[in-house]
């Protein structure tokens, strides 16, 4: 870990972070303000206007009773996965593959900073910035939610939901980061780094549509937990543990591959 | 200081460098010459530890160029051939980063270099002209006063005045005992700065010679216009010079040692104009090889 390089990473990538955080905050704020305890029934009726398969595919479960369930369904079902995914894809590609592709990484490698140090520093920035982003959103949602509807949010269940969603987002970041380390061509890095997480998301959406194709959901990293069940107070520590293991494996592989990589710069 | 033994580095395209052997001693300034695509940059990639060699070994100061790269970089300055800087920064921010990461307290040398090249590191690097980027690269490579310098086509993009400044900088660094490897395809630049020259062609080292030897073997070309060109050619040929008529101009090629005789012979002609013909690196090579074969 190089502190100077970490500071540089912040300097070069803060704008991307701010944009995504602000968009998500705005969206969350709107979602929470749309909620009203009395209107749960009305909302349910609104759902019934849409084909149930479509609603399920987008993660909008039909049966929620409180705000935690509402947020788990409307916000954490798809949005809090999809948006950070775009952030991960863009950032991971920019941090490694793009700088190898353009050759600007030579500026870092011609200083006494080792390859391992460079990659670890960049990975720390990637994971930490995503964690901070989701932490800000968690705090923001709790604050707004509690201010508007003091008794409607189960903070503990909501925290558990945020932890699991954070971990699955970190897995996505690690997938993109891994391919960013593997490929020297930005196009290939984006292709795999975006393609695989998007494929996982589509599998999960398809798997939600019907019980007959539930198997699709099980092979997707996004299908290993049910946001509604976590919002109802259940925990998924085993799934969280598996996510952590995947993160550690992908990061280790990224470092090992980059350490030996041929850099035509 | 820099030692390369049986170094082979192949690309998938089949290009690369093959069985390179050379050694650069401390305080030596060596020019690395070759046409485009000959393998100059590939050799430098191996020396910088960007690509691990397939075979053989390369070391700087006794340290392996791949495994010990970070240690080597503490005391090495590098100027890439095609510089791409980190995005979205000003030149000043980039230099500050380098100073920070190298743990430099004294920025005197950096200020000297900026002054020497009349450079202003303000503004986003993206907006810099090619010459300004080159100047920034030079400052970045020399500012920590390293003992070893690896420079890939260092004067590309610089105007003639700044090219001269650069030659002066190299001469100064040479006096201060620095070890320098610089690639180029401009013979003049190498001629003014280097003690020794390595010539690479299609991935193979084809010559390693002292600059003096190369200079003497180099034939200079002259273009003369006279009142009667045909007669001039006949006369010069009779005196043993390689003269021919091209586009109504007499072209004469002579080696360094016969310059005096040539000038004296020219006094017999009625000369309208007299020009030195600039020679491409290829010409220099060709004649060096030709001579080398005879010896």
UniProtKB/TrEMBL annotation, chain A:
Superkingdom of origin organism: Bacteria
Entry's Gene Ontology cellular component terms: plasma membrane
Pfam families: ABC2_membrane_2 (PF12679)
Keyword Heme: no
Segments traversing the membrane: 14-36, 74-92, 123-143, 163-183, 190-207, 237-258
Keywords, in A-Z order: Membrane, Transmembrane, Transmembrane helix
GO molecular function: ABC-type transporter activity
Protein known as: ABC-2 type transport system permease protein
Organism: Anaerorhabdus furcosa
UniProtKB/TrEMBL annotation, chain B:
Protein name (Swiss-Prot/TrEMBL): ABC-2 type transport system ATP-binding protein
GO molecular function term, any single one: ATP hydrolysis activity
Listed Gene3D superfamilies: P-loop containing nucleotide triphosphate hydrolases (3.40.50.300)
Protein keywords: ATP-binding, Nucleotide-binding, Transport
Pfam families, per database record: ABC_tran
Domain of life: Bacteria
PANTHER family from the UniProt entry: ABC TRANSPORTER, ATP-BINDING PROTEIN
Entry annotated with the keyword Transport: yes
Family the entry assigns: Belongs to the ABC transporter superfamily.
Limits of the ABC transporter domain: 2-227
PROSITE patterns the record matches: ABC_TRANSPORTER_1, ABC_TRANSPORTER_2
